[in-house]
Amino acid sequence: MIPPRVVCWRCTSRLRTQARQPVAKLAYSSLADTDSKIQPAHTSQSTPKQRIRPRIRDGTPETNRASLLPTYGSDAPAYDMFNQIVNGRKSEWTGKPAALSTSPETSGMRAHEIDLTFLLSTLVARRTEPVMTRLKTFEESIWPLLRPYGTDLPAPISHLLHEFIKDACVDSIQNSRATACREIAQVADRVGMKQPHIPNVMALKLCHACVTSKNTTAQRKFLAQSLIDLWMHVSQMQRLPEKDRPLRLALPDKVDFKVALRASPGSRDGVPGDRIATPESFLDALFPQFKDGRARDLMDGLLATLCLVSDPRFVTEHVQRDFAPLLELASIFVNEHSQQAELMLQQYPHQVSHAVAFPSEKFDELGVYIRNQWPLLVQFLNNKKAAWRQGSAPADDSKASLAQIHRRFRRAYEGRNKPGVSTIFAELHERQASSPDLRSAIQSRPELMDFIIFITCALRLDYEYKTAVELMKELHIPLTLKTYTGMMHGWRLCKDFRKIDALWNQLQVANVRLDVPIWTERLAAYILKGKIGVCMTELAKLQADWNAAVENKTVEESGAVQPSIEMVNACIKGTLEISPRSAKVLLSWAHNNGIKPDISTHNIILRHAFGTGPEDVAWIMDLMEKNGIEPNQATFVILIEEMLSLTGPESPEAQVEAVDQVFAELSRSKFALNPELYAKALHAVASMANASNAAVDAVLAHLRHQNVRINPYMVTILIERSLQRDPHSFAPVEALLHKYDMADTSRGDQTLWERVIRAAAITGEPYVALKRFDELAAAGRPVTSLPCLNELLRALLAEGDAANARRIVDSVLHNKMLAQVQRGGETDVDEARFWKHHFWYLAKENNLLDDANMPGGLHKLIEHY
């Protein structure tokens, strides 16, 4: 009888991988061979004889020996999660870890430790992927398994986590865009790396990116918001009362801060009892939760942050007000201990030895800015009438304020920024408590609360969700079907089916009259759970109830809901992925009940058809023609994206062939391809990241073949693509204008020439842009696009040409005043937003606005600058 064998975690993973796909096997085998340094200690004892591996014949384990090893089910979590990590969206993972089969002779390491070590090893090996992608994978796939461990992590897992965080820090520092600094600091803190050095390096990176890179207004806002979020996180680190609370600046009050500042154990010379507050004691008093002087690791990041916040070129007054608690304490130190405060500047950069170092050349670049900004920082902090001391931004118009909050919520949700959503909601909740006008504005705008309910459900922010529901009750805003639909949609997106079922049961018990949108969400949730039969049964019941109500003429009384094509579309996409046969049954049922498919139905089937074969693609195109369904922009996008996705940027010939095939299919289907649809097709190809120039040329060749004239919209598309490919040269833009006979401003529309002016300004040709600006003004077509004018103004100021910059500002003011007089002097929220554009900030900052020449009252709209 063959004795049982002890199998280590690496051998176990190898054996489990043999039962899987060759791709997974090769990926893990190569990783295991190259990452031999990650070896956890074995707790079980075994003899050398027992550690002999089973003999292998032709690469296959012997049957009788393999049968003695532990067996694993086909749903082993390591494979599900591995496929998710390696293959991204191509595979699904249930998220439910299944325990490994073990025997008394196997290693003492638990099954989850094996899985986690395996997953982390794979994730660490993915160094070429963007940092945000790796962090998202960690958040969704690995952190749920790590959470039960708390801070008691096994040595191999702890080692891999440190390596993962270190790699993320290094990649973020080297990358030109600081897109994941806050997230890295938060993940590091969560896994037990609570040293303040990592947030310090991330703060330096954010400040460096803000100061040394050319950023758009949106990018500056993102960097500023990331910076305030980062310091909020730092202030909450290692503070138990702040655990799981929304982000905020959890700093000491003035009294406690002054006491701690004076009670410092020594001066910079280390003399006990010295009353002189040093920069080190300033940091210790500011962040008392860091013991043994560890707060001093934050000195460089804090110094750079204070300088940046004091600079209105990079930070708005709104963000300065968000920083007010930190600025208040910093002003106490700078005002009362000015000589010691200057030591922060003299000692920059502070030499701190850590595994992740901020590059010396970037320290130097940032140091130049800090030294130039220091006098302005001191003046900024000592100004008793500074705007940041006035508290929250004044809500001169509650409705306009709510519109801004709504946009902030939307941006935070689009970026899946959970801390950002929590912060914005906390701000709204706090402001409405002390503002009757804001409460009234919220009551008159219930759609904002519905949107907040939706995003808090979608992001699993249970605290904010419950608080939002309570706020609606306090404000006497009823929970409508639209609110409940938003809840179900959010929970469906995050796959929280338990809450969907609970809400649906409550609605049915309460006999709430339902409508089409909420039924659509319910049916889509059934499909997502794989309950196709239940979904079709419910649809059939809805149709039967509707038919009965129509026959008995009791539609209003019964509350019957007529099944619609929207319901079918919500079900058909998931059904196609699970069971194409069931999808055909569903479409047949819809046809038999008079529910006609629309363009969305055909587009859903068309995208799926690309995965089944060219015959199905041809069939759906014929079906669209037979049903008289005209293709829309989505159809073109699907056709071209799916065709180009089969190729890569390294094979332009294949991309050209794909474009030709798309147009051949459209031509064969006898669709009327008008210039507008050709322009949409061109936009679909030109805006794709991996589309080659040959693919774009292929689309243009089809236009010429069909005698379609290249219109200004198409040239605008090509200019935008050229600018994305080469943002440092205006020559390609000029070549396009000459090629398509639009070199003169008499040709082309206003949008085209505003793009041309913006392109010239961005690429360093301000006087070419100025010439076009003057030509359009002389032709009675003055430029009104503030994003375009903003870039032109920046370019002229960079050249030091204040005279022409002032002329631009005066011209824009004149045209705006003239338009306002013609309109009758009426203003609205959009008008106020026009005056708050960054263009006017640049104008005021560079003394290009003359108060004497501004019409009465208009200067008040931009006085917040």
Describe what this molecule looks like in 3D.
By secondary structure, the chain is mainly α. It has four domains: 175 residues, no CATH class; 199 residues, no CATH class; 86 residues, no CATH class; 153 residues, Serine Threonine Protein Phosphatase 5, Tetratricopeptide repeat (Alpha Horseshoe), CATH 1.25.40. The protein contains 43 helices and two strands. A two-stranded antiparallel ribbon has the order 1-2. This is Pentatricopeptide repeat domain-containing protein. Pfam families: PPR_3. It comes from Beauveria bassiana.
Task: Write a short abstract of this structure.
The chain is mainly α and 865 residues long. β1 (56-57) and β2 (60-61) form a beta hairpin.
Q: What does the main sheet amount to? A: 2 strands, antiparallel
Q: Mean pLDDT score, rounded?
A: 77
Query: What proportion of the residues form beta strands (DSSP E)?
Result: under 5%
By secondary-structure content and strand pairing, the structural class works out as mainly alpha
The gross shape turns out to be: globular
Estimated helix fraction:
55-70%
Strand order of the main beta sheet, please?
Answer: 1-2
**Could you tell me the number of beta strands?**
2
Number of domains: 4
For the CA atoms, what is the radius of gyration? 32 Å
Distance N terminus to C terminus?
86 Å
Low-confidence stretches: 1-109, 266-274, 392-397
Query: Tally the helices: what do you get?
Result: 43
Keywords: Repeat
Region (Disordered): 34-63
InterPro entries: PPR/CCM1_RNA-binding, PPR_rpt, TPR-like_helical_dom_sf
Pfam families: PPR_3
